[in-house]
Amino acid sequence: MHKKTFTLLIILSLFLFSHTFFSPLAESTPNQPGVVDLRILETTDLHASLVNYDYYQTKTDNRIGLVKTATLIRNARNEVQNSLLFDDGDHLKGNPLGEYLARIRGIHKGKIHPVYRAFNFLAYDAIAIGNHEFNYGLDFLNAAIKGAKMPVINANVYSVKKNKPYFTPYVILKRNVVDQTGGKHELNIGVISFMPTQIMKWDKANLEGKVIAKPIVDTAKEFIPIMKSKGADIIVALAHTGISSEPYSDEMENAVYYLTKGPGIDVVLAGHSHSVFPGPVYKNIPNTNIKTGQINGKPVVMAGAFGSRLGIIDLTIQKSNGNWKVVKGTSLTRPIADESGNPLVRKDKGLYKLVKPEHQETVDYIKKLGL
Ligand code: MN
Ligand code: MG
């Protein structure tokens, strides 16, 4: 063979190989009308960790704080055209700032609790109530959630007096989304929320005689057909409950596995366990893929606690015969710090400024006590 032809063949084959094996285009499908990429973001179990600060050791801690997660939220939103942001509950209590506001200072009339001020600033689409939201009593909770501009939901805590859900059980959010070719669509996103029935033991003094808790999976089975009949195209569960494959029981605390099993729920935002999904902790759960973040084929995410991570679910949904169907759903989490606690993101200055007054009051109060 002529030397020049041989060289040309080598170059040509390298070119072909590189396209087959290394080009990211090789795996993706061409853009299609009626196919929408929708990103769903989760924070969970913040426990009033607004600032990257350890009130016990009175020093900066870059492994916690919504002011850090906020930067991940901003980045994750900027990468895509369509996104939604949810909190999965346990956001009011768990650190000295939460205690100071609830037990010492109280919420002044007309003032918004800094956790909800932060949620308003970051434009959360809906938030769940977690079991710890009851720790300061129903009156405090009801006063505090008045400050939240987005729906605050839970479906399985019922009022004893009215025998109806005590909170808003679900919402159907109407959102304008853009498909892969730029076409516009209106999507009805059904959002429902649950928490462990164990609240009746954990918060007996605050709850007995006022509310009861119904089993999580039964509640899902009751409401999902109603949500569908009211036009929900897809259903997202803000499930303030963990992941376990123990045999089913009505009163199971960690019910995510069984929420993913039945039809109806498309996406599960998990929480309560302060753990990370997808992650190696869950590698032995059956029908679970810790690479793609799916349990029983459904995308699930759990973003640790205290703002340490942002949960991200990337859905591809497709409209056919007038109905939207999830054709792909994967999940991952992004951390705010590396394993040694070194920061991976800066804090969101706007959010920090907004919550700084109460942060500073808490720090001053601790100093006054000489702690
Ligand atoms: Mn929690
Ligand atoms: Mg919890």
Write a brief caption for the model.
The protein is an alpha/beta fold.
Work out the strand percent: 25-35%
Put simply, the count of helices is 10
**CATH architecture field:** 4-Layer Sandwich
CATH class: Alpha Beta
Fraction in helix: 25-40%
Name the overall outline. Answer: globular
Domains, number: 1
CATH homolog superfamily: Metallo-dependent phosphatases
- What does the average pLDDT come to? 93
Q: Oligomeric status of the shown chains?
A: single chain
Per the CATH scheme, the topology name is Purple Acid Phosphatase, chain A, domain 2
Elements, N to C (H/E) = HEEEHEHHEHEEEEHHEHEHEEEEEEEH
Largest sheet: 8 strands, mixed
Indicate the low-confidence ranges by residue numbers. 14-27
Query: How many strand units?
Result: 18
Strand-helix topology:
Blueprint: H1 3-21, E1 35-43, E2 53-54, E3 59-60, H2 66-78, E4 83-87, H3 96-105, H4 114-121, E5 126-128, H5 138-145, E6 152-153, E7 157-159, E8 170-178, E9 184-194, H6 199-202, H7 204-207, E10 211-213, H8 216-229, E11 234-239, H9 256-261, E12 267-269, E13 276-277, E14 288-289, E15 294-295, E16 298-303, E17 309-320, E18 323-335, H10 349-368
Bound molecules: manganese (II) ion and magnesium ion.
Manganese (II) ion (MN) is lined by residues 45, 90, 130, 132, 272, 274.
